[in-house]
Amino acid sequence: MADSDLWEIFDSQKTETPNADQMDIQVQSQELNEAKNCDNVTKKNLSQSKRTTKTNKSFTCSECGKSFTLKGSVKKHQLIHTGEKLHTCPQCGKSFMLKGQLNRHIRVHTGEKPHACLQCGKSFSQKIHLSRHLRCHEKPFSCDQCDKKFRSSSYLNKHLTVHADERPYLCPVCGKSFSRLANCRKHQKIHSVKTHACVECGKTFIILESLKKHLKSHSEERPFTCALCGYGFKVKAHLNKHMRIHTGEKPHTCHQCGKSFIQLSGLRYHMLRHSGEKPHHCDQCGKNFTSSSILQRHLLVHTDERLHKCSLCGKSFSRPDNLKQHQKVHDAVRDHMCFECGKSFIAASHLTNHQKIHTGEKLFSCSQCGRRFTQKSHLNKHTRIHSGEEPQTSRRYCSSK
C-alpha cells in the first residue's frame, strides 16, 4: 500500500471510533514517518555522531589525572612517569620513550635529510627544523627608505632609527643619547656601582638579575635539555642558540661578503676581519686584539698565574674553563657531535674545525702559491715549505692550488 493511500484512509476515518483495523493503520503510518526521519540522517551526520560518542570516551592517567580521548595517547603519556625507554638505537645504544623519537635519532647516523628547502635546497632531518629554517627566507617587513627587509617588525623599528637619527634614550648621568634602550643601559654601566657580588667567585654585577644568571654557571644543574642530542643547558637562551646548530638557521648575515652566523657575536667578530680593526690594546707588550676576551686571555701570559689545578694529573691552568676543557681528556667526555657523520669531539672548537671537511670551506690562503686550507695551523705548517724550514720532499704539495 502506498504512503498516500494510508494517509487517505486515516483522514476519512479519524472522526469515527477506532477499531482494530484503524489502530493497525495508525501504527503503520507512524512507522513510515519514522522511516522518513531516518532517511534524512546523512552520512556526515552519522560520522559526526560517531565522533561525538568517541570524544566523550575519556582515558585518565592514574598518576596525574590527565585525561585523553585515545587509549594509545594515555599509554604514551604514562611513559613520562615511569621513565621507561623501550626503543634503543642499535648503533649507539641511546634509548627513547617513543619509536618516532628513535626514528628521528637514527637519521643522525644515516645522514638522511628528507625535508628540503625549496628556496635554497638545504635539507633537514626533521620537518620542524625545516620550518624554523624557512624563517630565514621570510622577511615581510620592508623599509620604505632603503628597501631593506626584516623578519620582524621589531627589527624594522630598530633599523628605522638609522634613517631618522632619533636618539630618544638619554643617559641621566652624562646626557649622552642613544637610538636603542639596550645601548643606553649598556652605557650606564660605566657610571654605575657594581653592588651585587657573587659569593662563589667574587664577581660583581650592577643588576641583581645578572647576578642570578651568573650563579647558574657555578651550579651543575642543567634543566634545559636538547631533545635531539641530549645536551643540557643552564639557561634557556643558550638552548635556543644551540638549536640553530640542528636547524641550520643563521640569522646574522655579513652585508659585505654574505656569510651568515648563528650568533650575533660571531658576526661582530667576523666584521673585524673586513675592517682590520683591533681595538683592544695590551699595555705591557703593545699587541692589539680584535676582542676584549682575547686580550684578557693574552694578559695571563704576562702574569703567568695558574691557579686552577687538575686534581687527577696536577696540570695547572690560568683559566677555569681551560681546566674544565682539560678534564674531559680524563673523563673521555665527547659531547660535541657532528650531525653530518656522527663523530664526537671534546671541544666545540674541534667540532668547528672538523665541520669544514663537510662544507669544503677553506678560509686560509697561502700568499705565495695560492693554496687554500681549512685551518690556520695547516697554513702555518705549509708556509714552512716556502721558508725552507721543512725538507725539500714536502714541496711537491705546492703544485696543487
TrEMBL record:
CC annotations in GO: chromosome; nucleus
Keyword line: DNA-binding, Metal-binding, Nucleus, Repeat, Transcription, Transcription regulation, Ubl conjugation pathway, Zinc, Zinc-finger
Classification via Pfam families: zf-C2H2 (PF00096)
Residue ranges of domain C2H2-type in the record: 59-86, 87-114, 115-137, 141-168, 169-196, 196-223, 224-251, 252-279, 280-307, 308-335, 336-363, 364-391
Chain segments carrying region Disordered: 378-401
UniProt subcellular location: Nucleus
PANTHER family associated with the record: TRANSCRIPTIONAL REPRESSOR CTCFL-RELATED (PTHR24406)
Highest taxon listed in the record's lineage: Eukaryota
Protein name (database record): C2H2-type domain-containing protein
